Structures are given as C-alpha cells and as structure tokens.
C-alpha cells in the first residue's frame, strides 16, 4: 500500500473512534472505513483515493517550503491555493526581496528615473538586486527617455534619483488565512480528531470553507528574525490567558484553541492583546509541552485515549 492508502486506513480508524467518543458514530454507515477531510469534515470512502478526491496536502503550501503531511479533499486543497496561498507566497517573496534574501522568481516592479516610469522585474540572489525592464510591457520612447534620465543623473552623481516600487500586490488578510490553515492542519496532523472535533475549532473551519477572509480574531504573529525553516508545535499551559496550541512555521506563530477547551479563539485574542507593549509588540515567555512536528499524521491524542 502507498502513503495515501496508509494515511487513509489509519485516519479512518481514529476518525470512527473519535466520533464514537462524542456519540456521533451513527453519522457514518456501520460498515466500511471513512476518512473526513479535516477542513470541511466531509467523510469519504476508500475509493476516493483512486478517484483523486483525497489528495496529499503540503503544510505549509508547496511554494512556502512545505512537505506533504496529510490528506485533504481535492476541493479544499485546490480552493485554498487559489483563494489564500497565493497571497502568502507573494507576501513571502516580497519580504525576502526587500530583506535582501534570494527569491526564486522575480518580482514585478516599476522603475522611476527623472519621474519617468518603466515596467520591469527585480530579482535577488541574496547578493544584491538585479533590475531589468520588460521590453514588451513598455513604450520604447518611454524606455529611451528613462535611460537618458538615468544616464544624466549618474553623470551628475545623483544615484539616489533612481527609485522602484513593487508592482505586485497581496492581501495580508488572505495571506493570514493561509497561515491559519497551515497551523490548523499541522495541529490536526499532530493531535488528531479528538482535537479538531472540539467545538472551539468550529470557527476556524468556517473560515477555511469561505473563499474570502472573514472577521476572525487576530491570533497570528510574525517575527521577521526567525529562521524560515522553524517548525514547532507547543501545547501552552502558562500563562493561563494563553492556554493554546501554538504552531510556529518560519516567522509565523498561530495560537489555536487548546485541546481541553479552556479558551475560545476570541478569549485567546484578548489574551494576546493584553500582552502588547506600547509599540504593539508581544514579547512572550511560554511554558508547556512540545509536540513533535508531524511529517505524517500522528494522532497523538487519539492514540493516548483508547
Ligand atoms: Zn475538504
């Protein structure tokens, strides 16, 4: 059996046990195995694998250095990419470019010399920027005038008269939903069904089924100094106002409700707000239990209570 088949069998077994525990096992036919997509909770039979209805999902998304971690349904997997992940990927590229780190694909930009704009691209290998005009997108007369302005400025020694603005856009709200989704999926893969079937996780799934960002509480933090390869899951016990499952992926930290239902996501947001300093920064000392980063579904809580 392949990876997807194994993931299906194990996931289906713990899914049924978790439903039995909360008295909902009669929602499934008593025979056969069913695995539910952790995003939409639609239960699918084993045949869904061969039919490509259950697919391997990367956490974080492929374009952000993610690895295949678990199965989600094809619809949720594709729609998230279209609606949210592209924004997270664009934001990361622009951050990397501006921080002088290498980017795998050039970023569209507008170059200005003497007030004359030329459309082009900026790429970075980590050793400075390379800026290139894109001939097809520009009027040749404008390019000539731009070059003249650039040359005369450099002859006068005015290098600072050259400017560029990034012409690519991303929506921070959409990008944040992508990180929320990655954190939710990693927490599911680590802890399992008994974790995500708690009512406190419902608001997150409601958001994941939407194609636009809703008014979800701000439970995501970003620290640009953290290594992009960071992967951590911590069950936070202290401080009490932040009891949660903290998922850290690169510089992004997402606080999710804890497995015992101590705090709702709104209460978590208030807990974070209460710790902000005058500059809006949160400097935290947390204590709790570190869970292993899942390279495949671990179902730690499902296995612990059998
Ligand atoms: Zn789904």
Give a topology summary.
Layout: H1 3-21, E1 34-36, E2 43-45, H2 47-50, E3 54-59, E4 67-73, H3 74-98, E5 107-113, E6 116-124, E7 129-133, H4 140-155, E8 162-166, H5 172-191, H6 193-196, H7 202-209, E9 220-222, E10 231-238, E11 244-249, E12 252-257, H8 265-273, E13 287-291, H9 300-304
Antiparallel strand pairs: 1-2, 3-4, 5-6, 5-8, 6-7, 9-12, 10-11, 10-13, 11-12
The structure holds zinc ion (ZN).
Q: Strands of the largest sheet, in order across it?
A: 9-12-11-10-13
Q: Report the helical percentage.
A: 25-40%
Catalogue the unreliable spans. none
Mean pLDDT: 91
Number of domains: 2
Overall 3D shape: elongated
Strand content: 15-25%
* N-to-C SSE string, H for helix and E for strand: HEEHEEHEEEHEHHHEEEEHEH
Bound molecules: zinc ion
- Rg from alpha-carbon coordinates: 24 Å
What does this structure look like?
The chain has 306 residues and is α+β, with helices and mostly antiparallel strands. It has two domains: 3-92 and 171-304, no CATH class; 107-166, no CATH class. 36% of the residues lie in helices and 24% in strands. It is built from nine helices and 13 strands. It has helices at 3-21, 47-50, 74-98, 140-155, 172-191, 193-196, 202-209, 265-273, 300-304; strands spanning 34-36, 43-45, 54-59, 67-73, 107-113, 116-124, 129-133, 162-166, 220-222, 231-238, 244-249, 252-257, 287-291. The strands form four sheets. It has a five-stranded antiparallel beta sheet with strand order 9-12-11-10-13. It has a four-stranded antiparallel beta sheet with strand order 7-6-5-8. Strand 3 and strand 4 (67-73) form a beta hairpin. Helix 3 crosses helix 5. The longest helix is centred in the N-terminal third of the chain and has 25 residues, at 74-98. 33% of the residues are buried. The structure holds zinc ion (ZN). Zinc ion (ZN) binds next to strand 4 and helix 3.
């Amino acid at each position: 059996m392949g990876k997807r088949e194994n993931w299906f069998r194990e996931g289906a077994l713990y899914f049924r046990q978790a439903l039995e525990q909360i008295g909902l096992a009669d929602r499934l036919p008593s025979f056969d195995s069913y695995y539910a997509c952790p995003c939409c909770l639609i239960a699918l039979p084993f045949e869904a694998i061969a039919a490509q209805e259950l697919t391997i999902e990367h956490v974080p998304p492929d374009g952000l250095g993610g690895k295949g971690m678990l199965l989600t349904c094809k619809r949720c997997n594709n729609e998230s990419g279209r609606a949210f992940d592209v924004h997270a990927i664009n934001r990361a590229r622009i951050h990397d470019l501006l921080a002088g780190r290498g980017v795998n694909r050039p970023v569209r930009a507008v170059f200005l010399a003497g007030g004359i704009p030329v459309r082009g691209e900026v790429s970075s290998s980590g050793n400075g920027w390379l800026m290139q005009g894109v001939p097809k997108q520009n009027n040749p007369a404008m390019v000539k005038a731009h070059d003249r302005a650039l040359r005369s400025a450099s002859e006068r020694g005015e290098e600072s008269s050259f400017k560029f603005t990034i012409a690519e856009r991303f929506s921070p709200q959409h990008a944040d939903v992508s990180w929320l989704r990655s954190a939710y999926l990693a927490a599911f893969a680590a802890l399992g069904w008994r974790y995500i079937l708690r009512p406190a996780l419902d608001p997150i799934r409601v958001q994941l089924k939407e194609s636009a960002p809703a008014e979800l509480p701000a439970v995501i933090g970003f620290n640009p100094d953290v290594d992009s390869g960071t992967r951590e899951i911590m069950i936070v016990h202290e401080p009490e106002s932040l009891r949660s499952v903290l998922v850290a992926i690169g510089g992004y930290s997402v606080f999710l409700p804890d497995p015992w239902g101590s705090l709702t996501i709104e209460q978590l947001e208030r807990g974070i707000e209460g710790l902000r300093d005058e500059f809006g920064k949160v400097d935290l000392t947390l204590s709790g239990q570190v869970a292993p980063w899942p390279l495949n579904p671990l179902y730690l809580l499902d296995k612990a209570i059998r």
